[in-house]
Amino acid sequence: MDNLFRAATDARLNAHAPHSGFKVGAAVLTEDGRIFAGANVECASYPEGWCAETSAIAAMVAAGARHIAEVLVVAESGETITPCGGCRQRIAEFGDSETIIRAAGPEGERARWTLGELLPAAFALKS
């Protein structure tokens, strides 16, 4: 948890959020113990930005990893921040119903769920 929290917190500091000012960091832990971090990247054309979770997953995929064991999202907010619906589906693409999702603020973990709790009917293509 400490390494995941540190990676997400460090990534959050580098977020590009000139429009909202709302910086988010995320880190994913793979089944083989590697950690990949990402930050939100806003764009003047709002729908074209990337969530922190998307950035972390992209880094993971670029490194050749394909399975998420755990995700930690950190943001400074009075509310607990969870992955958006699109990110939940992206996590489902590389995780499973038991993948742990942790939400944190700068002070540390605030809540945790399994992906199955946050996205009980994830869309999946059957091969």
UniProtKB/TrEMBL annotation:
This is Cytidine deaminase. GO terms for molecular function: cytidine deaminase activity; identical protein binding; zinc ion binding. Its cofactor is Zn(2+). GO terms for cellular component: cytosol. The active site is at E53. Belongs to the cytidine and deoxycytidylate deaminase family. The keyword Metal-binding applies.
